[in-house]
């Protein structure tokens, strides 16, 4: 199997390394609780022996009821696992066209290179769809003022003290929101015509939607008690450990489009972050995706080449098997690192069926695995009930 990865020969705007499974934004793979869709997905992945999940647990950092990872160690583990697999040959090269021969799995993610994006557009006969997604800042741990930021997990979940919490009173919150709204944003040419991803809005866009939006969103104070004040704060900024050494903390839900100097100015208004030094600042980026319900079958096969299939038990996400057979490709059915890690985890998936020379079977609707049509099948899925 040949696995093509264009980094580091051709970098993306966001990735920083040449490793596989590099998390570009949040280091959280979200809840482990079975009562949530994220938890259910991970449970299914665990039962099926997901390598990605194994690596995540080996590099886990404290995050209450969520599974968060040391992003460096996590991608190192996945990269090492792929490197040690003798049946995979890694080719560091940009793929610019969809290969005509062989089984082809396209798992190029939202930052697909422009040449391949254009080729996929030609293949599907549709304009490539896109939206804007943003990245949250990461802070040097020893620049956080621990006399103000208190350790606690919401409702005492997980270790009970997994997050650092920067509390705000009403005045501090209102001043902060006013400066957030006044802050200068980085310009983006296509911004006027392109929507944000509603599941990951920039913090200033959330603030623009209403005075209390942040207090009921990423800055919600519920389940937290400020030990200094002896009561629940008016609002809270949560910081999540970003590496095992606890040297870095990421600002939870603080993805932003503010200019970098503005981020420093505005975020240093947060109690406990007055002296904050940033390991990484927020950014906003265009994400590409395909119109999966229109161009893919439920088996994740291309409609245009219906005998083809998609990611199988293969633990690599971008593979071109050397054994010639049929073509297949896929795109993300929904955004997010969690969902993206899933299709490769499930045997026997359409791609492994192709390798085995059998017919791909549709994704069972009773799993929480994302499919092109899972939105429409949601009400019929007991797993989501
Ligand atoms: C700015 C931004 C912020 C995000 N924030 C979050 C978040 O907070 N939480 C969350 O869950 N998800 C977030 N996402 C989404 C998440 O990153 C993706 O859904 C997930 O990484 C997709 O995984 P993937 O394996 O499909 O693609 P990727 O992890 O992107 O892997 C695709 C790989 O293909 C390579 N590639 C691209 N084009 C070519 C080519 N032509 N030839 C060869 N190789 C190529 C790329 O270099 C990359 O390594 C964010 C995405 C962006 C862009």
Q: Can you give a write-up of this model?
A:
This protein is α+β, with helices and mostly antiparallel strands. The protein folds into two domains: 222 residues, 3-Layer(bba) Sandwich (FAD/NAD(P)-binding domain); 153 residues, Beta Barrel (Elongation Factor Tu (Ef-tu), domain 3). Helix content is 23%, strand content 15%. The strands form four sheets. Strands 8-9-10-11-7-12 form a six-stranded antiparallel beta sheet. α2 crosses α3. The protein is globular. The relative contact order is 0.18. The C terminus is likely disordered. The site of flavin-adenine dinucleotide has 33 residues, from β1, β6, β13 and α9.
Key phrases:
globular, Elongation Factor Tu (Ef-tu), domain 3, disordered C terminus, 23% helix, FAD/NAD(P)-binding domain, 11 helices, 2 domains
CATH superfamily of the largest domain: FAD/NAD(P)-binding domain
By CATH, the architecture of the largest domain is named 3-Layer(bba) Sandwich
The helix count comes to 11
How would you spell out the order of helices and strands?
A: EEHHEEHEHEEEEHHEEHEEHHHH
The unique ligands bound to this protein are:
flavin-adenine dinucleotide
Mean pLDDT reading: 83
Class of secondary structure makeup: alpha+beta
What number of domains? 2
Q: What would the CATH topology of the largest domain be?
A: FAD/NAD(P)-binding domain
Strand content: 15-25%
Q: List the strand order in the largest sheet.
A: 8-9-10-11-7-12
Unreliable runs:
308-335, 342-348, 375-385
Largest sheet: 6 strands, antiparallel
User: What is the rounded Rg?
Assistant: 22 Å
Assembly context of the chains: single chain
Taken from the alpha-carbon principal axes, the silhouette is globular
